[in-house]
Amino acid sequence: MGTIFSWLISTSIIGGFLVGCILLTKALFKNKLGARWHYCIWFLLVLKLLMPYGPQSTISVFNIFKIPEQITSKTLDIMEIKDEKIYDGATWNELDQLTNVNDKLSNSNKKVTTFMTIWALGVIVLAVYTIRVNVNLWLLIKQGRLCKNEELHITLEKCKRMMNIKRNIPLIKTQAVVSPALFGLFRPYLLLPPNLAEKISREELKYVLLHELAHFKRKDIAVYWLTGVLQIIHWFNPVIWYGFYKMRQDCEIACDALVLSRIEQEEYTNYGHTIINLVASMKKSYQPIAAIGMVGSKEELRRRIKMITLFKRNAYKLSIMSILAALLIGGIFLTNSQANALVPASAEVTEIEGTLATEEGKLGLWPLPNYNRITSLFGERVHPVLKKKVVHTGIDIASPEGEKIVAVAAGSVIYSDFNEGYGKTVIIDHGDNIVSVYSHCSELLVEKDTIVKAGDEIAEVGSTGKATGPHLHFEVRKDGEAVNPLKYIVQPREEE
After folding, report:
1. Contact 190, 169 (CB under 8 A)
2. Residue 347 lies in a domain
């Protein structure tokens, strides 16, 4: 759960940066690209908030700006005391002394638990409120009546033909809405307030129906549900909320553009007057996720009218320029940096020229570039000093003293000091609750809180601590538990 929460927080931070980039790009292109593009570009934000992992790219913004992948539940969990059981020459009490972790781990866990509890309560409150509002609307709609006005149905059928829609969409007059709205994700209804005929003409009613049918054709209710759920999940991030607010504004403008692409040019002015009349005559109310209305805020009116006056019939189509701009932003924000990362244990691996390759293209480097002979594997063994069966939590790699040890992946040094059992030790946090441990070193070349890249020299081989000779004891720990390092890195081929 901690890993998921960490991913959620980091994704939300990145999403905030993406909102800023989208707004900047929209401002730069402004009237150069059509209304549809200005709406579609927001789907990059939706994708980012849904993607658990992005491919590596040379144009990723994260090659420049390093946003921590792990900001909660620091992997000090590796130090947790385990009933005095002996691990590779050090009891867990001895290992605990690596960072005096008792208090730090307790305080860290308490903070993470508090944040997760607050987040979960926020999600529950907003989810219950959203469901209640939409259920109440549905109950009110059930009390409404089907519209039996024959002329209105003829107008609706004409509008459906203009939009190339064959689905039966009932017209319902109901007190549940104050302005025309499309309701229903699976069974759509067109909702009309009872007194609508008194406020607009039949010609204007045609434009209203066209607008709501445009929402149906573009599947906007499904998008509203998706973005609504994402807003609830990221309720703590006002930038995400603002981004989706602007997305919904652009959704209305994109619908206006679709309607304009289906009517005659001389009707554009009348369509604009219809929007003005509706905004002027109807009050704005809370819009549930399940319903999409034509009336927006008065602040949106200027943008919508300006778009109508500048609209060209082919402007609704996406140009090559607009597609390239979206791909560029996606390449920058939807991808990860090319910094090497540890490979998940579940990844399918193959040896390629001494490195570990996966389908995702991630690499886990070998910690001793010039030496690859493993003298002790992961698992149970008889300890060479204690002469008793113990669990060997890593691998031992033979090497002369003084040989340089490198970081297997990018990360932050969370420990660089001496321990009685492990000797001089470096521990690197790589995010995702994964750490690598380098023990029995003769010299430590990095200090705590140092940020390292894959391949950076961090220590020299030695035999400090409980060791019989110079070698590197290397471990990988996931969620505080020792795992087989060879599932994360691969021994290079020996030279013939």
Report:
1. yes
2. yes
Amino acid (1-letter code) at residue 241: W
Is there a domain that residue 367 lies in? yes
Highest mean pLDDT among 70-74, 87-91, 118-122: 118-122
The separation between the first and the last C-alpha atoms of the chain, rounded to the nearest angstrom, is 47
3 state DSSP class of 163: coil
Residue 117 domain-assigned (yes or no): no
Find tokens 């005096």 and name the residue.
100
Beta-bridge mates of residue 425: 417
Q: In whole angstroms, what is the distance from residue 334 CA to residue 47 CA?
A: 8
What is the Cα–Cα distance from 188 to 138, expressed in whole angstroms? 12
Number of domains within the chain: 1
Phi and psi angles of residue 116, each rounded to the nearest 5 degrees, phi first = -65, -35
Domain that holds residue 450: 343-487
pTM for the model stands at 0.60
- Asked if residues 259 and 271 have their Cβ atoms less than 8 Å apart, the reply is yes
Bridge partners of 233? none
**The domain spanning residue 453 has which CATH number?**
2.70.70.10
In a domain, 395, yes or no: yes
Element (H, E) at 222: helix 220-233
Angle at 95 between CA 89 and CA 99, to 5 degrees: 150
- Phi–psi pair at 63, nearest 5 degrees: -75, -20
Q: Which two tokens stand for residue 270?
A: 């009348």
The type of residue at 24 is: L
Sheet holding 389-392, edge to edge: 90-91, 86-87, 389-392, 379-382
Q: Decide if 45 contacts 15 (C-beta within 8 A).
A: yes
**DSSP 8-class letter at 271:** H
CB 59 within 8 A of CB 330: no
- Residue 405's H or E segment, with its range, is strand 404-406
Residue corresponding to tokens 């597609």: 323
pLDDT in tens, 292-348: 665 555 666 777 777 777 676 555 555 566 677 667 777 766 666 554 444 443 333
